[in-house]
């Protein structure tokens, strides 16, 4: 019994300098990279359920639509009219935004159907493809192409 305990203690003590060296190198690399956390915006208007960095240094974020109004309005009096929505049949707030890293600004985007329980990926040209969701969103394919004026396009799958 003592031999087994001694062996375990020896293994831990032998690996401790290696662990300390790895931690020390990691901490030095993080410091050398100059990284830091900084709050850029106190409120983006939605709760970012999904977030994707695009190839144009912008970040698209989107949230579920069936939980009520968000805290950011759609532009130009645009409203989402959806008789199948569980919370708001007419909703003039955005449930998706595009964050521009270079200008630290938010642009509201129009997503028509609920993205809750969805998934997605970016293609090689930077297009964001987002599939599925909840309620009326479960059979939807959504596409967002990165450009200054682009918005979500949606198609229902048969």
From TrEMBL:
Metal-binding recorded as keyword: no
Lineage: superkingdom: Eukaryota
Residue ranges occupied by any Glyoxal oxidase N-terminal domain in the UniProt entry: 49-156
InterPro entries: Gal_Oxidase_central_sf, Glyoxal_oxidase_N
Claim: Signal is one of the keywords in the record: yes
Alphabetized Pfam families for the sequence: Glyoxal_oxid_N
Listed PROSITE patterns: PROKAR_LIPOPROTEIN
Protein name: Glyoxal oxidase N-terminal domain-containing protein
